[in-house]
What we know:
By secondary structure, the chain is α+β, with helices and mostly antiparallel strands. 34% of the residues lie in helices and 19% in strands. A 9-stranded mixed sheet has the order 23-22-24-25-30-29-28-26-27, sandwiched between helices. A 7-stranded mixed sheet has the order 1-2-4-3-5-7-6, sandwiched between helices.
Amino acid sequence: MLKKLLLGVLFISSSISAQDYFYKKFHPFDSNVPSPEEFLGYGIGERHTRHDLIVSYFTKLSEVSDRANLYEYGKTHEGRKLIMLTVTTPENLKNIDGLKTQHLKFTDPAQNPSNYDEVPIFVNLAYNVHGNEPSSSEAALLTAYTLVASNNPEILNYLKNGVMFIDPTINPDGRDRHTQWANMYQGNPLVADPQDAEHNEYWPMGRTNHYWFDLNRDWLLGIHPESRGKLKWYHEWYPNVVTDFHEMGSQSSYFFEPMKDNGSLNPIMPKENYVDLNNLFGDYYAEALDSIGSFYFTKEVFDGTYPGYGSSYPDLQGGLGLLFEQASSRGHKQTTAFGEITFPFTIRNQYTSSITTVKAAVENKAYLRKYQQKFFKSGLDNASKSRIKGYTFKDGKDANRVKAFVDKLLLHKIDVYKSGGGFVVPTKQPQYRMVQTMFETYEKYRDSVYYDASAWSLANFYNMKYKPTTSLDFGEKVTSLEGLVKTTPVQKTAYAYIIDYNDYNAVAALNHLQSNGLVISSSSKPFTAKTGEGNKNFGYGALVIPVSLQEKNENQVFELVQQAREKYHVPIYAVNSGYNVEGIDLGSRWISPLRTPKAAMLIGDGVRSYEAGEVWHLLDTRVHMPITKIPIRNFGRADFDKYNTLVMVSGSYNFTKKQQEKLKAWVSKGNTLITIGSATKWIIDKKIVSEKLTKSEEKDSTSIVERKPYVNAPENIGKESVGGAIFKVDLDITHPLAFGYTDDTIPVYKNNSVWLAPSKNEYATVAKYAKDPHIDGFITKKNMEENLKPSASLVVSKLGSGRVVLFADNPNFRGSWYGTNRLFLNAIFLGDKIRIPE
Ligand SMILES: [Zn+2]
């Protein structure tokens, strides 16, 4: 016992000095508060810390100290806790609700508080949105320890004048994937060779969350529990300053804001944000990093144009969002052209920026408060000056898609009202800038190279037909999603049930019924049936459930149909006769049984994990249909006869000739292959289908090229890539792939250079870019005229008795394209309905 105790003491005292590498200047520390090292049993930087240990340490801090409170704001897909540690003086903490009330007055344009200096500043220190950028969560442990345990006058001053909300891991699922990787390959002694396994994670790597989504794009889209939990917290506290810590490639130094200028010509953010505030804070970081001898750069790269980053969303809420990028040691130590980068070195830079952020926030407390107050007031002022008084939208035929869009508006605290059978979003509201973000589109840009998307008008993602309005005519305010979708109970019938296929959830209902053993037919022509609720028009794709043709009895069928309605809120009607009022009858050959899909998707090295994750997420969370994820390394030996549908998302598929033949033979048997983006290009290049890519004018090799300055190369080349923009397509709504759509033009998202030529077959081009296709986002004139305008977005190609569905554009982008992912679901569920006339 004594021996053990002695060893413990020795261990602690010897390594405290090692940990002084990080926080020497903040002594003395309260000895009742364990340091991260004492708690974990290893020094910060010696290993990668698992998320559950981070949670345990933060829990411990909240237990031993009256400076800290722990709050759980959600759980990840894999069930990991999402936590926030509030740290301030014990007095502030006791009065936190009172401080919050005072703070929120500055975000309410209807109030005029002027006690800018009296309320402590709210700082949200947020870390590790990208799981394999691990230095930041380790820095979060050190930052929390410093703020909770240090009795240094400098820190005591920060606590008195600030409330720090520490979110150590925004993406715990991804972090733990990488943590496991880095720890399991750690050598002793450490191996700095960049070719070592420790520095080369395997697919899908740790950047993304459970479904391989980039959470640093999800702040606007709000698809995942990580962001939804955080957004809910955010709109309760409106912090003045928010950090977003990242790592970049190893061959670099350190980056802090100011960023590159905003790419939009008239950004909706006040210039004061990205000019004055960023420069003010930039001076602090420069001074702090200079003092520890670290190198850095600013302004050259990264833009905050897209409002869904962790460093740009806060800017739209009157706060200051701050991006930090540390050159990664990706592992514990790595050799680079600039010398060796160690994990502790990367952690120290992030820790230094963390404490410096608190310092800058506290020292500019009144300014930041005034700024936030001005921000929300100017939002209302701008709205008053706008000719547009609101945006109206409705879609009477697809209540569940409308509901999903309203959910997004409410998530961002945008006011929505019922109006004339639809909805209206007035512009005159404190969240005016978010209203602009959702509905406004852009045509003019100051920049041509984007770090990410150049279009984000969310109304278009949801295929909402919306209109600006100059009149104000509201009904009731929408405060929850409850009751937005109304369906009447189904009556029991011995004849047939019909499901309206226009509803977004019809596919989930179809899956529920098919997976429970019912045979469902789909109608290829519209008809009007006499239902229990009167005569009812059904469009293309209406689902028909003939009762007497099922193996299950009348009661069992009724039970399943009721379940489908209750679970998915889709309109289902009972009919007692097959003799229709108009159009085809229920026994028509145009109404034929659907094959139940058995779907698989190729995943693994070379496959674009984002797109694969989007497919997986869509089927899991919206349709509740399992999809088999086949590692691509097993392609040769996998038995594909178990499936009738295969998905290949963008990626580089280095198949041998024999493997290509295997794929071709499988499709030819009558199966459906769905390709997206570069997989579409690949399947055409390999001549597996006889479709073509759009040929742009080939340059005459003898013509003289214009000589350009070398330094401009990245910019010139960068602008020809399509970073992400929204275009209009003409849709053939009589085609099975477009069943359920009622408008023959819809917006699609394009972020690649796959230019698909329309098919030679007159019936096989399902979606073609419209004559005047631009809706939102940046594209060069050359790309628009030579590539986009002549091309198709969606084509089907016959192969033997099977078919290949070729998507040039990703219909499932970031889990939020409700407007186009229906096309993808149709390819899965209605694929074998496509009979292409020769
Ligand atoms: Zn990152």
